[in-house]
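ok new one. same drill as before - structure tokens go in, u give me an amino acid for every spot. 306 of them this time. try not to just spam alanines like last time pls lmao
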């Protein structure tokens, strides 16, 4: 009997808390799932169903005479040929250039703000960046047309037309895109710049490192994931922009978003109604690739913010 008492009694307090912990974790997990249910419903209705519609429209064609729908790859093939391929290539090139310029200029502006000791400057710039990063569409196009268009104020004041300037070119559209891409980069990179601790610079200086050596060996490697993440985010934003380009250049410049709008408005040959869905699916694939690169980089850069 004494042997039994000493063997059984210690196991009771060890088992009870574990069972109680698992029992307590289940209600918390259920509560978390229930709290996320509205988000899941929203994503399913406003993202999932349109994605299914785009995917089905991209791989099917309907014969109006017999009202039959068949599977086909013709829409996807046409979306990467001829004028559609030119539009896709032009959109990618414009997005790459504007994203690269936005990363450089936005990082320099953010570094100047972070390094500044002026009180309130950071809050002012961050607040303005939050507003300007979401300022686009027709109002932004009108503002640039009134300022730098053919009869714009600055165009006539500085005789920009004689210098070869035109707002309705890829270069002019890139300038307009930078108006909201640079503030977006400031919002993305400013927290990462705050993660560069002053102790690192002081330690590098004590070891005899110059400013360039600090940035080359410490600063840029630390900021690398954030810079690359900002680049892919700016690329995706420029790639998906539509309203500003439509209001400014219309169909003058071949862009994939403008081609989708033309196809949706019926500006396609009979039997090619699914080309718009195929172009949209191409954009979804490009956006998916961008997010696949951005999310791991964002998680890695977040380590320096802790």
């Amino acid at each position: 009997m004494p042997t039994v008492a000493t063997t059984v009694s210690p196991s009771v307090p060890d088992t009870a808390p574990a069972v109680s912990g698992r029992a307590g974790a289940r209600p918390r997990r259920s509560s978390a799932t229930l709290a996320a249910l509205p988000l899941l419903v929203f994503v399913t209705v406003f993202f999932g169903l349109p994605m299914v519609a785009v995917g089905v429209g991209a791989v099917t064609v309907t014969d109006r005479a017999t009202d039959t729908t068949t599977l086909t790859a013709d829409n996807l093939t046409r979306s990467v040929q001829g004028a559609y391929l030119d539009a896709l290539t032009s959109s990618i090139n414009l997005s790459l250039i504007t994203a690269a310029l936005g990363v450089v200029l936005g990082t320099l502006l953010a570094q100047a703000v972070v390094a500044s000791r002026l009180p309130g400057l950071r809050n002012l710039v961050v607040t303005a960046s939050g507003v300007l990063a979401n300022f686009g569409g027709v109002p932004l196009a009108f503002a640039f047309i009134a300022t730098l268009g053919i009869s714009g104020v600055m165009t006539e004041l500085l005789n920009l037309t004689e210098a070869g300037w035109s707002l309705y070119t890829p270069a002019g559209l890139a300038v307009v895109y930078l108006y909201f891409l640079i503030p977006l980069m400031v919002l993305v990179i400013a927290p990462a710049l705050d993660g560069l601790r002053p102790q690192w610079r002081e330690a590098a200086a004590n070891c005899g490192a110059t400013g360039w050596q600090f940035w080359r060996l410490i600063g840029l490697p630390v900021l690398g994931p954030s810079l690359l993440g900002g680049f892919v985010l700016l690329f995706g934003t420029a790639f998906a922009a539509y309203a500003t380009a439509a209001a400014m250049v219309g169909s003058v410049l071949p862009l994939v978003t403008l081609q989708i709008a033309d196809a949706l408005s019926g500006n396609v040959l009979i039997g090619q109604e699914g080309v718009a869905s195929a172009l949209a699916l191409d954009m979804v694939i490009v956006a998916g690739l961008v997010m696949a690169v951005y999310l791991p980089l964002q998680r890695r850069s977040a380590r320096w913010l802790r």
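Residues 1-15 have pLDDT under 50 and may be disordered. and btw The first strand starts at residue 60 and ends at 63.
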